[in-house]
Amino acid sequence: MVLIDYDDGKKILDKYKIKSVPSRYVRNVEDAIAFADSLKGKEMAMKVISKNPEALHKAKKGLVVLNLKEKEDIIKAWKNLESKAKQFMPYKIQAQEMVRGIEIIAGGRIDPQFGKIVVIGLGGIYVEVLKDFQIGICPVEAKNASMMIDMLKSKQILLNSIKKEDLVRLIINVSRMMVENDISELDLNPMIIHDGKIEAVDIRIIK
Amino acid sequence: MGKKMKDKKESKKIRYYNLNRLIMPKSVAIVGASYDADKVGHIILRNYLNAGFSGKLFPVNINAAGDMLGLKVYKTISDIKQKIDLVVVATPASTVPDIIDQCGKANVGGVVVISSGFAEVGNIDLQKQLIENAKKYKLPVIGPNCLGLVDIKSKTDTMYLPSFKLDKPILGDVSVISQSGAVGSIVLDLIDHEGFGLAKFISYGNADVVDESDILTYLANDNETKFIIFYLEGVKDGERFIETVKKYGLKKPIIIIKAGTTAEGATAAHSHTAALAGNSEVYNAIFKQYGIVQAEDLYDLLYFAKIFEMSPLCTGNKVGVITNGGGAGVLMTDAIYKNGLELAQLSDKSKENLRKVMPNIVNITSPLDIGGDADRTRFKNAIDAVATDDNVDIIIAIVLFQTPGADSSVVAEIVNAKNRTNKPFIVISIGGNYTLAHRSMLESANIPVYESPMAAAKAIKALIDFSNAKIQKK
Question: Fewer CB under 10 Å: which end of chain A, C or N?
Fold first, then answer.
């Protein structure tokens, strides 16, 4: 099990035209402030990225700070994250534009019996509770992708914010990405639907 | 991983798609045929004789001593020296690999191994020997640990169940595949009661040589099989199964009931995706994606089969309901909407026509309640109006035979009306012996009858889903 670095994962997503929110690793607090300035008034999030398995549930361990904009808040957040991250060495800190919208999950895995599959569903904190998701067997064609969306209970919630064809394209792209790469598990959770687009906020690719 | 990949390639080498000699044999040898009337081998031989199998029968018993049920007994397969299409093996597991080898040498058409005592009880070595010997001769072997085959047309029947305990189906066009012998025999026993007949029955047990994908492929290409009923616990080769259902899932309806779930997927999860998409979820996804009709329990299986057997495909979901009982009409309406169907609204023209022929007590609305005193004429007029209405895709007549006007003359009107339409026509009748008698009249005229509105609505939904998937694929 090898977890792919976020930036490398982003490159793979780019290749399949799967969008992700603007983000980069920041080396120090000045760097973080510079990134925040580049967002031109939009809020920023900072997260600790570590391969330590204990650090996987970032929110639970206090490894994420949201809604950052002012310089002094960023400085405070930086200190806070550094102190909590010590136990998860080595680590990096990632700064990311904050987006708000409807959270979905897109993912894939290799089923031990049937091979590569993709998953689409309502995401974020609702994944485990509502379990509103559909599976497609790779390669997923447009017709199957459309059927998967039709069978989601949250279909209407999603389609109020995004065109169906965009979701269909996302599913097909995730399927292509699974088929053409050596990926055993993929989690884009959450991807956020906002302003008519879908962007990955967290990228988790396991080779 | 390396070893696993290699194993998979091995299993891909031989495919057993032509099972004609095995399933429709002209000559059958029964190894383990016994003089003892309680032994499995004896029952199988007797069943062949009772069924009037017209081909050659060769009882085989290593201790052969004189005729058995009037037939010459052979000590071994090699002694027969005539063409053998099917060999049924019902001897102890330890003797089976050697018998398979003899069958290979004798160039038989195929083998059904009824015997148990292989991998299912941990005898892996014996299983390996069986597989190796079968592969050496590319010999199709069904089982072990199964009930084997029934082919109504060729009167082959390898089941060791005493024939008086099981209602043998008549010749029809449904084929049944079952991983479990017990469930398979229940389905077999009930088919006749649901008013349809059987083409082929295959209980395949451990699937060590011929597996589910071989059998599905064979039946998908079998001209005598119109659709397939399938009881599945788990597939032997996942990738081949996907290839197979991708190719054939929509060629003919496959109605499946999948039993058993495992936590295999969830235990190895490093991601949300893996945690969500466990084994049973993936099975469900496969069935949905490739147009396989999934039944939730055994009754669904039979109810779905009935509509596929007796109705044309249908993509519209608007149901026109005629009823001679108000309450039953309300229950039907609930069941229609719960299953994603709609109540058809009659056209103005139909309503006008109905007003002319219906008494004042009949409210011309949907569902169309024609009153507890409805007789054959009222049924005829109502059904004709609903069936010819373009807003109606499917017709349901609820006939409560407890009412004074409902008798066999109503049955006659329904049968005539059904023959005038090419839309699916379903009857719902609930009741005791009087009702049951009329139900069987209707079913012998190829009208599916259901006892509950919910069962009917679920079956209609299954028919529509399959029809839509099939049309979309074209």
Answer: N
User: Can you read off the two tokens belonging to residue B309?
Assistant: 């057997």
Q: Is the domain defined by A102-206 classed in CATH 3.30.470.20?
A: yes
Q: Give the nearest partner residue to A117 out of B235, B239, B277, using CB atoms.
A: B277
Asked if B229 and B169 count as a contact pair (C-beta separation under 8 A), the reply is: no
Which residues in chain A are contacts of B279 at CB distance < 8 A? 111, 113
What is the residue-averaged pLDDT of chain B?
Answer: 91
Quick one: fold of B313-473?
Rossmann fold (3.40.50)
Instruction: Provide CATH 3.40.50.720 ranges for chain B.
Output: 20-145
Quick one: how far is CA B135 from the chain centroid? Answer: 29
User: Using one digit for the tens of pLDDT, what is the confidence trace for B98-128?
Assistant: 999 999 999 999 999 999 999 889 999 999 9
Locate A147 and state its tokens.
Answer: 């059927």
Burial B194-212 (b: 16+ CB within 10 A, else e): bbbebbbbbbbbbbbbbbb
Of B264, B271, B284, the CB nearest to A204: B271
Whether domain A22-97 has CATH 3.30.1490.20: the reply is yes
Spell out the per-residue pLDDT of chain B, length 474, in tens.
Answer: 334 444 444 445 578 888 999 999 999 999 999 999 989 999 999 999 988 999 999 999 999 888 999 999 999 999 999 999 999 999 999 999 999 999 999 999 999 999 999 988 999 999 999 999 999 999 999 999 999 999 999 999 998 887 777 777 889 999 999 998 888 888 888 887 887 899 999 999 999 999 999 999 999 999 999 999 999 999 999 999 999 999 999 999 999 999 876 555 444 556 777 778 778 899 999 999 999 999 998 889 999 999 999 999 999 999 999 999 999 999 999 999 999 999 999 999 999 999 999 999 999 999 999 999 999 999 999 999 999 999 999 999 999 999 999 999 999 999 999 999 999 999 999 999 999 999 999 999 999 999 999 999 999 999 999 999 999 876
Q: Give B134-145 pLDDT, tens digit per residue.
A: 999 999 999 999
CATH 3.40.50.261 range(s) for chain B read: 166-310, 313-473
Ordered by start, the domain boundaries in chain A are 22-97, 102-206
The architecture CATH gives domain B166-310: 3-Layer(aba) Sandwich (3.40)
Of B238, B269, B271, the CB nearest to A114: B238
Query: Do residues B13 and B73 make contact, with C-beta atoms less than 8 angstroms apart?
Result: no
Task: Please give the distance of CA B32 from its chain centroid, rounded to a whole number.
Answer: 30
Helix residue spans in B14-52 (DSSP H): 20-23, 40-51
Helix, strand, coil percentages (3-state) for chain A, rounded to 5, are 40, 30, 30
Interface test with A, best of B240, B241, B246, B273 (most A CBs within 10 A): B273
Q: Is B72 part of the contact surface with chain A (CB cutoff 8 Å)?
A: no
User: Residue A37 corresponds to which tokens in the numbers above?
Assistant: 């300035």
- Contact criterion met (CB below 8 Å) for B216 and B254: yes
- Best of A4, A114, A184 to mutate (most B CBs within 10 Å, chain B): A114
Give this prediction's pTM.
0.89
**Identity at A87, one-letter amino acid code:** Q
User: B384: which residues sit within 8 A by CB, 6+ positions away?
Assistant: B417, B420
Residue B343, both tokens: 């109540």
What is the fold, at CATH topology level, of the domain defined by B20-145?
Rossmann fold (3.40.50)
CB < 8 Å to A119, chain B? 273, 276-277
- Quickly list H helices, B395-432: 408-420
Using a CB–CB cutoff of 8 Å, tell me whether A178 touches chain B: no
